Amino acid sequence: MAQQLWLLRHGDAEPHGARHDADRRLTAKGEKQARMAGEALARLGLEFAAVYTSPRVRARDTAHLAAAALKADPLIHQPLSAGFDADEARALLAAAGDGARVLVVGHDPDFSQTVHDLTGARIDLKKGGIAGVRIDGSAAELIDLLRPREVEEIVA
């Protein structure tokens, strides 16, 4: 049975150099992007078997703000911090079971590369953007790509 992997890139964050990279926080814009992403996913009727997040502050905060609308509790998954790939994605889906949807919150370029490795699609996942991938056995397809402005239109 087909599964779905949904990837949410963290919202807009403090600039590089503001503090140690792992501790960079969301800006007010990033907090808004995170809330809207969660609300958009909820309005699309998506329910998730699990929500995983990078331990980095900006991703973790994005996950918690988005998950509030989804009535989910994000779990920290260390590989989402750096080096997340198609094999990691498949492992999370395998743990979730047949037909499951999993949401991961993390970073680029890992997410764009993972989508490419799974589907062959080349995407530019913006901060606060969402990609959805349907996986059925060894076949995978990009089923949705939402830029922040499109997320905002769903919520409006």
Walkthrough of the structure:
- 38% of the residues lie in helices and 22% in strands.
- It has 156 residues and is α/β, with parallel strands linked by helices.
- The protein has a single domain, classed as Rossmann fold (3-Layer(aba) Sandwich).
- It has a 6-stranded mixed beta sheet.
- Helix 1 runs parallel beside helix 2 and helix 1 crosses helix 5 (148-155).
- It is globular.
- The chain starts with a strand and ends with a helix.
Write the layout of secondary structure elements.
Layout lengths: L2 E7 L18 H16 L6 E4 L3 H14 L4 E2 L9 H11 L4 E6 L3 H10 L10 E7 L2 E8 L1 H8 L1
Parallel strand pairs: 1-4, 2-3, 2-4
Antiparallel strand pairs: 1-5, 5-6
